[in-house]
Design a protein that fits this description.
With about 375 residues, the chain is an alpha/beta fold. Helix 3 runs parallel beside helix 4. The strands form two sheets. Strands 1, 10, 11, 12, 13, 14, 15, 16 and 17 form a nine-stranded mixed β-sheet that branches. Strands 2, 3, 4, 5, 6, 7, 8 and 9 form an eight-stranded parallel β-sheet that branches. The protein has two domains: about 220 residues, TIM Barrel (Alpha-Beta Barrel), CATH 3.20.20.10; about 100 residues, D-serine dehydratase-like domain (Lyase, Ornithine Decarboxylase, Chain A, domain 1, Beta Barrel), CATH 2.40.37. Helix 3 links the parallel strand 2 and strand 3. Keywords: Lyase. Belongs to the DSD1 family. Pfam families: Ala_racemase_N, D-ser_dehydrat.
Length: about 375
């Protein structure tokens, strides 16, 4: 893992650029670290949104992980095809996705599928669909503990909604889902304190549910930045996602977590249009553009400054004109890996500096078969 040349290809001449290279030995390291941090593999529910690939799912299942989280029906179907035992669709179904979710349950009888709700209308809609299809749907109440993106505050309204869920004859009350992606302080001590403070109302809600003589709710909590802290909680399922491939963004913010970057962009210099300027074949269509510059961390090109990006091009200022030439290959870790993966049909698999396989990004589409 200390090899400074771990990312480069010995025979890159036939590899199309840009390509997204992945390194299974580094993914395996991240899986093992994730499991060791949580301690109990049964309290680990990784999110598959980052890689959307069956091979990486199977690597985790081979390590004993059987619970997963996902964001789309296509990702859920991929997990069903992988024969995952327990899948949480962590996106409240709306529109046609409500019926698609029911079809998913019916199509994969050996996988337990659950999903989220944060309001009574959605709860009743799913309850009606469950009744019409003679099934029972497991649901989690989505809790907003400060991110203000989805969910319901952990107050009396949440308590009433959970009670409504527990009393519905065609729904199964699973527990509480809590995503705290807004907690990203670079100081882990401060981030942990903020995480614990934000989690206190969730624990109070859990205690109030138990006072109603309702079975104690399970809790799924956190993402990658707060993963180390939720790992310390008894009985809480921790649900990191980016930990599997990691990226330059989280790597720079949270170096104390010790996950390894396992996905690297291979790019070529497309042009040297003027003095001190390099243009790479790494545009919006190949690299997530929503982050401010720098959007990648070059592994082999020092003293560069990313200045613009368009559909097919990334333009970089560079102060050493004696080294780079048009066609030269360079390697970089993306700042945000999740939307970058979704831009590729396949992941180019590298072992011992050689391409050994290509893994399809199966669930990058909106729909598979359901």
């Amino acid at each position: 893992m200390k090899d400074n040349n771990w990312y480069s290809l010995t025979h890159p001449e036939d590899v199309i650029s840009p390509s997204l290279l992945i390194y299974p030995n580094r993914i395996q390291h991240n899986i093992e670290l994730m499991i060791s941090m949580r301690g109990d593999v049964n309290l680990l529910r990784p999110h598959v949104k980052t890689y959307k690939n069956a091979n990486i799912i199977v690597m985790q299942m081979d390590a004993g992980i059987q619970k997963f989280k996902c964001a789309t029906i296509a990702e859920a179907e991929l997990l069903g095809n992988c024969k995952a035992k327990d899948v949480l669709l962590a996106m409240q179904p709306i529109g046609p996705n409500t019926k698609r979710f029911v079809e998913l349950i019916k199509a994969y009888g050996n996988t337990k599928f659950s999903t989220l709700v944060d309001n009574s209308k959605s709860l009743q809609l799913l309850g009606d669909l469950a009744k019409a299809n003679n099934i029972k749907i497991p649901l989690w109440i989505d809790i907003n503990n400060g991110m203000n993106r989805t969910g319901i505050a952990a107050d009396q309204k949440a308590l009433a909604l959970y009670r409504e869920l527990s009393e519905h004859e065609h729904l199964i009350a699973e527990g509480l889902h809590v995503y705290d992606g807004h907690l990203r302080h670079t100081d882990p001590t401060i981030r942990e304190a903020e995480c614990n403070t934000a989690f206190e109302p969730v624990l109070s809600l859990k205690a109030n549910i138990e006072k109603l003589d309702i079975p104690s709710p399970k809790i799924v909590a956190g993402g990658s930045p707060t993963f180390p802290f939720h790992c310390k909680r008894d009985g809480v399922e921790a649900s990191p996602g980016t930990t599997l491939l990691w990226d330059a963004g989280y790597g720079s913010l949270f170096p104390e977590m010790h996950f390894l970057p396992a996905a690297v962009l291979m790019t070529r210099i497309l042009s040297k249009p003027t003095t001190g300027i390099l243009c790479f074949d790494l545009g919006h269509k190949s690299l997530a553009p929503e982050m401010p510059f720098p959007r990648i961390a070059f592994l082999d090109l020092k003293h560069s400054k990313q200045i613009s990006q368009s559909e097919e091009h990334l333009v970089v200022e560079y102060d050493d004109l004696t080294i780079p030439e048009v066609g030269d290959i360079h390697y970089a870790v993306p700042k945000h890996i999740c939307p970058t993966v979704a831009k590729y049909d396949t992941l180019t698999v590298v072992k011992d500096n050689k391409v050994i396989d290509h893994w399809p990004v199966t669930a990058r589409t909106q729909k598979s078969t359901i």
